[in-house]
């Protein structure tokens, strides 16, 4: 099957779409799309998705919509699932952010963990600060830490992949049982 995408405004018009949310547990605990099934990208297994689709009597001609915060992880999930699912996979462009801009209602959870994006900004900022402080007062080689983090941020911006984000997504506070 091919992977396609749908704009948030077009998705909003659909009646009871089958949605797989591939965000982390913490993100889903904070805010979720009502009725979406949760399969975090870092734990994504095509067998469990197939079992879920069978359990809800999903028909092969019906599309499955993939959702994340901004669209990138949903594309990765679609690539992982493409060869293993016998139904059309459709990525929601712009993710939950775009759906909220279109006025689609979300459920506010009781999640106490901050978003993955904020976690990345906090860790990157602290690493740069530590590198500058240690480079100034201890050894000039610690400036390399700040440079390494800066290069990582530039790489993440250019390639739209973030190694630090993927590592943080696997941390225990982001993977607690729901």
What are the main properties of this structure?
178 residues, alpha/beta, 5-stranded parallel β-sheet, two-stranded antiparallel ribbon, 7 strands, elongated
Give a concise summary.
The chain is of the alpha/beta class and 178 residues long. The protein is built from 8 helices and 7 strands, in the order E-H-E-H-E-E-H-E-H-E-H-E-H-H-H.
Could you explain the architecture of this structure?
This protein starts with a strand and ends in a 9-residue tail after the last helix. It is elongated and about 65 Å long. With 178 residues, the chain is an alpha/beta fold. The chain has 8 helices and 7 strands. Strand 5, helix 4 and strand 6 form a beta-alpha-beta unit. Helix 6 runs antiparallel to helix 7 and helix 6 packs across helix 8. A 5-stranded parallel beta sheet has the order 1-6-5-2-4. A two-stranded antiparallel sheet has the order 3-7.
């Amino acid at each position: 099957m091919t992977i396609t995408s749908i704009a948030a405004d077009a998705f909003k018009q659909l009646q009871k779409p089958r949605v797989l949310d591939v965000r982390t547990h913490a993100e889903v605990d904070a805010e979720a799309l009502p009725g979406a099934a949760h399969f975090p990208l870092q734990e994504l297994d095509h067998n469990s998705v197939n079992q879920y689709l069978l359990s809800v009597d999903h028909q092969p001609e019906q599309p499955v919509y993939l959702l994340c915060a901004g669209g990138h992880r949903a594309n990765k999930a679609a690539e992982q699932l493409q060869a293993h699912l016998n139904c059309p996979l459709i990525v929601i462009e712009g993710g939950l952010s775009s759906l909220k801009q279109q006025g689609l209602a979300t459920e506010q959870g009781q999640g106490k963990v901050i978003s993955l994006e904020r976690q990345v900004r906090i860790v990157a900022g602290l690493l740069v600060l530590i590198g500058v402080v240690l480079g100034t007062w201890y050894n000039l080689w610690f400036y390399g830490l700040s440079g390494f983090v800066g290069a990582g941020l530039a790489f993440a911006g250019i390639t739209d992949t973030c190694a630090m984000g993927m590592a943080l997504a696997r941390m225990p506070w982001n993977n607690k049982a729901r």
